[in-house]
Each structure stands twice: as C-alpha cells, then as structure tokens.
Amino acid sequence: MTTLGGWMNKILIGWGVDPKFANTFDETIIAILMIAMAVGLDYLCQAIFVGGMKHYTKRSPHRWNTLLMKRKVVPHLIHTLPGILIYFLLPYTFVHGVELLELAQKVCAVYIVAALAFATNGLLLVFLDFQNQKDTSKNHPMKGFIQVLQVLAFFVAAIIAVSILIDKSPATLFAGLGASAAVLMLVFKDSILGFVAGIQLSANEMLRIGDWIALPNGGANGIVKEITLNTVKIQNWDNTISTIPPYTLVNGSFQNWRGMQESGGRRVNKNIYLDMTTLKFCTPEMIDTIRKEIPLMADYQPVEGEVPTNAQLYRIYIERYLCSLPVVNQDLDLIISQKEMTTYGVPIQVYFFSRNKVWKEYERIQSDIFDHLLVMVQKFDLKLYQYSD
C-alpha cells in the first residue's frame, strides 16, 4: 500500500537527499504538511460556511440564526472537520512509527471531542437566550439549570477525552467515579446546594428576576438582577452589587416585596405623638369653630348624648382627609387609631396604602400627607409631644 510517508520519502530521495535522512524525517514532514493543510482547511471552511452564515444572518436576521452566530455554534462545529480529516489520513502517514500514530490519533480524537463539547455548550446558551426572550422567563429563570447542563456536558467530554488518552472505556471511568463520589460531593458542594436551592426558589416562585428583596441581616436590599447556579446577584439601592448563595435564601429568611409591587398600593404606617396634657373634651364653641375653619369637618355632628374629645375629632379629620386624596387607595385598609400611651405621649396610628409604589413618589406622598397632618394638630387645640431635658 502506497503511503504518504513513502511518497514523501521518494520525493526527498529524488531531490538528492540522503536516504538515511529521508527515512528519518519523511513522515515528520508529512505530519507538518498535514497540520498546515488542516489549518488551511479550517480557515477555508470558516470562510465558506461561517462567512455564508453571517451574510445570510445580515440579510435575513431571524432569532435562531442570530443566536447561533452569537454563541459560535457553527464555528465550533466547523472546527471538527479538519480534525476528522487528519484522523483518517494519519494511518497513511505514520507507517513505521506505530506509537506515534496512536498518539496522533488520540490527540485528534480529543480535539474533536473538545470541539463538539464547545458546540454543545453553544447550543445550550442558544436555548437559554430563547428562554430569556420569553415573558415567562422571569417567573422561571433557566440560567441555573443551563449551568448544570453545561457542567455535565464538559464533565462527560472530559471523561471521554481521558478515556481516549489512557485507552480505557468511558464506562469503566464512570464506574470508578462511584468510589470517589464523596470527594466529588465535597468539591462540588456549593454547586449541588445551589442547584437544589435554585429548583426550590424557582418551583415555589419564591424569587424572580426583577424582584425587590431585603435580607434581615442587611447584607442585601435591592433588585434581583441574575439567578445562577451558585449565586443570586442583587443590585442594592446604592448601586452596589451583592452576591448571595441561593441556599442561603432557602435556609434563611428574606423579604420579597413582589406582593406589594403587584398589589394595589404600598403601605404607610406611622404614628403621630400628641401631648397628653392637651387632650380635652370639646365644648360646643370648639366644635362650631372647627366646622367653620376646616371644610372637611363642616358636616360633622357628634353622636347624641356624647361629648367628643379634641383627639377624637382629629382622628375623624385624618380619616376624612385621607379619603379625599386620590393617591390613597380606598379599597385597601385605612385605619386611624389611638395606641397605648407611652412616655413619648399618646400615639395616633395612621395606617393606609399609597397607590403610587415608586420609591421616590411614595416618600414624597407620605411626607406631604404627614406635613399636613402635623400642622393641622393645632387646629384641634392639640400639641405634639416633644421631648425636652
């Protein structure tokens, strides 16, 4: 059988090269030429197939071809072609050096496995991109699951590559890994815990991308930007980034403000402390004055036989005032109550829900409301409690 090495040997001898030198380096020269040919073939295939794909993508941009090019799936698949070509040409090259032939074929096989692993990784990322473009992706983040599949794909590829190099069956290596399962559990402890926690967070809809969460220890308070296998990335309100292991959220506790964001309002719950010494029963003259000076109290009529206090009238006014504001959601709880007396005076609890839930507007609304309520205290002949030494 004519071999490439023999063919090169004849050419070298025909050029006047010493036969001894020709017999030593003929197969080496062919190997170098094959590597150069493989590299050239790779560039040619990349130019033809990948270049054609890029041109088609620019002319007809669809989601699938755009993502395939973005994740370099096609280039990685094309990389396997020169590896396959060299693998089948090697027996025609190394005739004298059997050991070198086996080593070269193993290197080619490992190269092909690596290229296929990277192509598989690209396909997984394409699937993730498809999922992220769906509206339901926030409810069921897939990045953690895809990362598990990526780790599994590269792990299997590594096992196959090692089995090729040591000339053992992959099944034998997988069986041998059973004995080292405890070590693997220790090495991949965080990944395994993160994967299980990610499933719990997603399946129970405890956490979504875009949720506002707060940890009780103050380690994070902001918007969830990313959920991965090992971390939950949170952008805090001061624009710093906190990374929390998913199993920390499952094992501990955290506050998710999604319910507030999806509800009809954001709660306001504050106390106004009145000076106890200024509480008193209202005279008919006081009631008439309040009716004249405060429009919202113009139709107020005390219960027959009851003498109201000025604090009672103030609570009635607070409720009427809040009910008159469009920014207050009347469909949710609105409670004005007097709480147990403290050393800081008599607390009037003001509890309602703001329709506007945006932080900046929410703070402005409640500040404006309480500014008004604090100023109105004097209209009822009351005073706010202020501590003084």
Automatic annotation (TrEMBL):
InterPro entries: LSM_dom_sf (IPR010920), MscS_beta-dom_sf (IPR023408), MscS_channel_2nd (IPR006685), YbdG (IPR030192). The chain crosses the membrane at residues 29-52, 73-90, 110-128, 148-166, 172-199. The keyword Transmembrane applies. Keywords: Membrane, Transmembrane, Transmembrane helix. SUPFAM superfamilies: Sm-like ribonucleoproteins. GO terms for cellular component: plasma membrane. Its main location: membrane. It comes from the Bacteria. One of its GO terms (biological process) is cellular response to osmotic stress. GO terms for molecular function: mechanosensitive monoatomic ion channel activity. It is found in: Membrane. Residues 190-258 form the Mechanosensitive ion channel MscS domain. PANTHER family: MINICONDUCTANCE MECHANOSENSITIVE CHANNEL YBDG. This is Small-conductance mechanosensitive channel. It comes from Bacteroides stercorirosoris.
